[in-house]
Design a protein that fits this description.
By secondary structure, the protein is of the alpha+beta class. The protein has 19 helices and 8 strands.
């Protein structure tokens, strides 16, 4: 079967299990998940869906999210959209109205103003991750070629490819911000472009000459939000006959002046403070900071608070070329892998859970943790806590070396686990940076395993789950959450790769 046929078959298998095309309100995808807006949630056949070989798990938030994994989801989504578009649409409005009411009620229960704000921030930066990854890997390759003295005629071109996006990232942030906050995206991008325009170097504000890029992504975010409010004010008060001329002009003029003579300076000071604080924290309390960050990241994901870190990562990458926080946070995934391996050995008779772990571990090593988190450790309870312990010790290991002067950073956000190796950078040699990160992963694996094996199970938990289930097979599907004799994963907000 060709790759296209395989992806089409996956889409065709999923569609009837989510209620058919008439039950689909919207289709989108992120790095690992097919996100569906459903008209009637009750039509979804959850257990049958989870039993599909290609499905790693499901998560229910404001959309119904089917975990397919990186790469696969980007290929299955167009096939799924084509099937939905080709199907006849229902003529009655009753089902749509019922589904809309269910969706609205669920969103009202699950949303808070703070979580909605964090989701907006995530929606601004998450679409930028593929470009950050691609440019980050090219930058790493270019640095390696320069250090080796190879291909001197090619490295300037690679530098341009790696740096072009970062030089204009403020424009993309401004565009996405305006789009997310209900304004005209291109106006948000136009105002944010002021920040990176070389001509600002001729302007004095607050007693100092501005620098192109001053304020970075935080300045772009603030400028675009201001532009949205100015634009909305103009739409209310400017006569319709003059709107096409006056509204964009006033939007760029007012928000542009505030950006030049206020936001760039303020955001620049905040960005500098963020970078200085991160460096100071890891230089003076690296081991302790790493212990806390690595140990608490998974709970932050469960609460949806991890999204607040995205602009901080981006600011550090923009300032220093890499974020020193991501390799530490990635240790949470290492603790999770170690804990899952321990669960595998502690439950030798539960074929269902063991099959899930074996199928999900390769993705876990590459930093995709949803199948292990939602299908194994979180529902079991204690193994989730001991996984956090493993992440804490791994983070403490990496943080300790930061405190000793060896910075370990990532040139992009998104990947984790072994997938982060191509994006590693630091203030010492690449070999030393890779060795420290690898050492942190090993510590996370080992401590997560030991903590889970010896303290992750009570007697009652063992009696409940170490029971005979269906025999293990190598070809059966990943079942997340697992069936008979296994835990059922609760609803949870979407995590990011750590």
């Amino acid at each position: 079967m060709s790759t296209d046929d395989k992806n089409r078959a996956i889409a065709a298998a999923i569609l009837p299990l989510v209620g058919g095309a008439e039950n689909i309100d919207s289709v989108a995808h992120c790095m690992t998940r097919l996100r569906l807006g459903l008209r009637d949630r009750s039509l979804v056949q959850d257990e049958a869906l989870k039993a599909l070989p290609s499905v790693m798990g499901v998560v229910e938030d404001d959309t119904y999210q089917i975990v397919l994994g990186p790469g696969t989801v980007a290929r299955v989504t167009p096939e799924f959209e084509a099937l939905v578009a080709a199907a006849p649409r229902p003529s009655a409005d009753g089902l749509a109205a019922q589904g809309a009411a269910i969706k609205a009620a669920r969103k009202a229960r699950n949303q808070t103003p703070f979580k909605l704000f964090l989701r907006k921030i995530a929606n601004i930066f998450v679409p930028l991750i593929p470009a950050l990854i691609g440019c980050g890997i090219i930058a790493g390759l270019n640095g390696l070629l320069i250090n080796l003295g190879w291909l001197p005629g090619v490295t300037p071109a690679l530098a341009a490819m790696a740096s072009g996006f970062m030089a204009l990232i403020a424009v993309f942030v401004g565009f996405n911000t305006a789009k997310e906050f209900g304004g005209t995206p291109i106006l948000g991008g136009a105002v944010a472009a002021i920040i990176v325009f070389p001509g600002v170097a001729k302007i004095d504000a607050f007693g100092q000459t501005l620098s192109p890029g001053q304020g970075g992504v935080l300045g772009a975010l603030g400028a675009a939000v201001l532009a949205v409010y100015v634009e909305k004010w103009c739409r209310r008060w400017v006569p319709e006959s003059l709107d096409v001329l006056v509204t964009p002009t006033l939007t760029v003029l007012v928000s542009g002046l505030v950006t030049i003579f206020g936001l760039m300076f303020v955001a620049g000071e905040i960005s500098t403070a963020i970078g200085d604080f991160a460096n100071w924290l890891l230089a003076n309390a690296g081991a302790g900071a790493g212990l806390v960050l690595g140990g608490l990241f998974l709970p932050l994901v469960m609460l949806g608070l991890h999204q607040a870190l995205i602009p901080i990562h981006t600011t550090l990458i923009e300032q220093q070329g890499f974020t020193v926080l991501l390799p530490i946070l990635a240790m949470a995934g290492a603790g999770q892998v170690g804990a899952a391996v321990a669960v595998y050995f502690k439950l030798p008779r539960n074929g269902s859970i063991r099959r899930t772990i074996k199928s999900a571990l390769p993705a876990g090593f590459l930093g995709v943790g949803e199948p292990l988190i939602y299908g194994v450790s979180l529902p079991l309870g204690r193994p989730f806590v001991t996984a956090c312990v493993g992440g804490a010790f791994g983070g403490g290991f990496v943080g300790l070396f930061n405190m000793l002067g060896d910075k370990v950073g990532s040139t992009a956000i998104g990947p984790s686990g072994w997938a982060l190796f191509p994006l590693l950078d630091g203030n010492k040699g690449l070999g030393e940076t890779i060795a420290i990160y690898a050492g942190g992963l090993l510590v996370g694996y080992a401590v997560g395993f030991v903590a889970t094996y010896f303290w992750g199970f009570s007697r009652e938990l063992l009696e409940e789950f170490d029971v005979e289930t269906e025999a293990e097979t190598e070809t059966e599907a990943v079942e997340v959450p697992v069936a008979a004799g296994g835990p059922v994963a609760p609803e949870a907000p979407e995590p990011v790769r750590v």
